Amino acid sequence: MAADILLATSRPDVWNACLSVFGDRGYVVRRAVDMADCLAVVRSTAPRLVVLDLDLDPTALRRAVIDVLMINAAVHTAAVTNLEEEAFHDAMEGLGMLMSLPTSPGPHDVERLLDALEALELPNSPSA
């Protein structure tokens, strides 16, 4: 069964080179063009992951993630940002975001994202 990824982006062309990576790994990508559209899709389909690429400042991005989580706290989130890793962590602390992605994401970035997502759902190994 394919899992849904919601890509909320105002820059769909940037993602064209990455779409096949999602499909090759068994994911169906749905798109949203803005935050209102994103929240409507989260309400109606409960995607496994929401990727936010809407050119939001850190405060607006934090609010957007909270809005997603208020609808469904089980949805994983990631965001495209130009913040350095430490600044991103500080700005998004406590939200449980999966990761940040560079402003020009490529197939390798999507592979890392999906690896991180799939690692969350691996069964725990029995202790020795």
Describe the protein's architecture and organization.
It comes from Candidatus Mailhella merdigallinarum. InterPro entries: CheY-like_superfamily. This is Response regulatory domain-containing protein. The protein has 128 residues and is an alpha/beta fold. It has a single domain (3-120), classed as Response regulator (Rossmann fold). It is 41% helix and 20% strand. It contains 5 helices and 5 strands. It has helices at residues 19-24, 35-45, 58-71, 85-92, 107-120, and strands at residues 3-9, 27-32, 49-53, 76-80, 99-101. Strands 2-1-3-4-5 form a 5-stranded parallel beta sheet, with helices on both faces. Strand 1 (3-9), helix 1 (19-24) and strand 2 form a beta-alpha-beta unit. Helix 2 (35-45) packs parallel to helix 3. The protein is globular and about 35 Å long.
Short recap of the structure:
The protein is α/β, with parallel strands linked by helices. The protein has helices spanning 19-24, 35-45, 58-71, 85-92, 107-120, and strands spanning 3-9, 27-32, 49-53, 76-80, 99-101. The protein has a five-stranded parallel β-sheet, with helices on both faces.
